[in-house]
Amino acid sequence: MGDILRHARRVHGGLLRMATLLLALAAPACSGDGDTPIPGNATPGPSDRSDTALDASCTNDVGGYTVRYPAGWLVNTGDGLPPCSVFDPRNVDIPVDSEMPTAIAVSMSLQDVSFRQATDFAADPSVDVLDATDAEVDGRPALRAELRHTGWGLYDAGQRSYAWFVDVDGQTLIAVTHDVQDADPPPFAARQRILDAMMASVRLVEPDRNGEGEGSPR
User: Fold this and answer.
1) Alpha-carbon span 213 to 210, nearest angstrom
2) For residue 191, which of 203, 180, 204 has the smallest C-alpha distance?
């Protein structure tokens, strides 16, 4: 297994609707032909369990965060897409110029959209809010939400997403997992638990704009 997004390219387009926001977390276009695995704090979510083990970590120098994730999972290393953005236990092959599959276990990215705009669900016909809870990630205001898609836009009606939104200096760090029928393990409930634990490990750092490595804490 190898870099799951070795040749990924960024998705361009609007980020005003929730369906587009969640799909824009990671880029299309990749091949997973390698064979080498790649070796914070938040308000706990309701599905947290003490047995969630996050034994690996990575840093997104562009987005300005570090996060821990389950050992044995794969993470993209930054060729065409900022590193530490897509996490999955499988080596995933995504066709060029396609949308990011919702079967990806966890996607995480800093988006150039305000926290208020990203969490304005009332203005978004593409989702119904099943649950939304104020939280905190590394001292920043955050919201975690379970959403059910209405069929408007890019998701099938009835599909659920579980997402975290973090207010980061006028931008929003968004992490999401989806409930996909007949998806490979882990199941949706486990993905929620893992995402909660990952967000509890997040540390925000100054983005590296000069290629000098991990920045100082924000």
Assistant:
1) 8
2) 180
Region of residue 199 (phi > 0: left; psi between -120 and 50: alpha; otherwise: beta): alpha
Helical residues (DSSP H) of the chain, grouped into ranges: 18-23, 115-118, 188-201
Q: pLDDT tens string for the chain (218 positions)?
A: 334 433 232 322 222 344 444 444 433 333 333 332 333 344 444 444 444 789 999 999 989 999 999 988 999 887 667 899 999 998 876 555 656 677 889 999 999 999 999 999 988 899 999 999 999 999 999 999 999 999 987 788 999 999 999 999 999 999 999 998 776 778 999 999 999 999 999 999 998 766 555 555 66
DSSP category for residue 121: G
Q: Structure pTM?
A: 0.76
